[in-house]
Amino acid sequence: METTTFQRFLQNRGEAPDSDEWDRPRNWDDPDYSHPGAPVVGVSWFESRACAHAMLVNAGEPLPSSADQSESHCPWLPSETEWERAASWNAKNDQRQEYPWGEWSQNESPRQHCNIHDSGLGQISPVIAFPAGISPSGCYEMSGNVWEWQANWYDEDKDWKGLRGGAFGSGPRNARCAYRGLNPPAVWNYNGGFRAARTDF
């Protein structure tokens, strides 16, 4: 957060109320939401984009142009298509799975596989806390724990950004790989974070 890359990239952060006063995620100093190894929460789409870029930028790489800093272009967060493939695609079977670990029936709870309401934790957890829920591509926590901002717009009017994965208070339906959530990009939530993913053009 203290890097020049992060601070300069965060300058374009939309019309979020009081956003000029933000210098850290909203829940950064809250012990209930800042466990070691757990996702960062309390970040808007703009902060998520800035963090992901600062994490993934190569040494000596120039900052993006103004056009590349727009709300319509973000190669440092996954698109919904990229996210869903990483979460659900099983190359061995050549098919999608309902959840990262496979299928789920009404007689079974996914609480052993991910941090959702059924797990009873009631708060964020370390990313490696549910090894039984790893996706076929090797990604942890694609379901549950925190909602993850997506690069793309959810709607044609460009009012909402996509969210995926569900969170610690979500039900099994929201933790499905195909479930789509949404929020205005300036919104921050105690159960919302991001997953950095670089797309090279």
Would you kindly provide a written description of the structure presented here, covering whatever features stand out?
The longest helix is centred in the N-terminal third of the chain and has 12 residues, at about 45-55. The protein has about 200 residues and is largely without helices or strands. It starts with a helix and ends in an 8-residue tail after the last strand. A hairpin with a 4-residue loop joins strand 1 and strand 2 (about 95). Helices cover about 15% and strands about 10% of the residues. The protein has helices at about 5-10, 45-55, 80-90, and strands at about 90, 95, 145-155, 160-165, 180-185, 190-195. The chain is built from 3 helices and 6 strands, in the order H-H-H-E-E-E-E-E-E. The relative contact order is 0.21.
Features:
201 residues, 4-stranded mixed β-sheet, little secondary structure, two-stranded antiparallel sheet
